[in-house]
Design brief:
Blueprint (H helix, E strand, L loop, with lengths): L1 H26 L7 H21 L10 H24 L1
Length: about 90
């Protein structure tokens, strides 16, 4: 049981790092973000993307696959857009 949990956490970190890195390249924030921020952006983006997909009646994150990767990138792009907008206001 503990092994499954630790593997799940490791997969989320890897998934988050990949999603965050691809999104930062796409959004032009790669120079400002390090690995830690890529992981955080990727994981929060996956959660946000999954939640948004559930609002429109679709499946969110289903595992380590292309569909989930696309959903996570969409969520991460939205996250970066919102953060950039809030930084301009503040």
């Amino acid at each position: 049981m503990l092994r499954q949990i630790s593997m799940g956490i490791i997969l989320w970190i890897i998934f988050g790092a990949l999603v965050g890195w691809i999104t930062s390249m796409f959004m032009g924030t790669n120079q400002a973000q390090g690995l830690g921020q890529d992981i955080v952006v990727g994981i929060i983006g996956a959660l946000l993307g999954g939640w948004l997909m559930s609002l429109v009646g679709k499946v969110g994150i289903t595992g380590f696959n292309v569909y989930s990767f696309i959903v996570a990138v969409i969520g991460a792009v939205i996250l970066i857009i919102v953060v950039k907008a809030l930084r301009r206001i503040g």
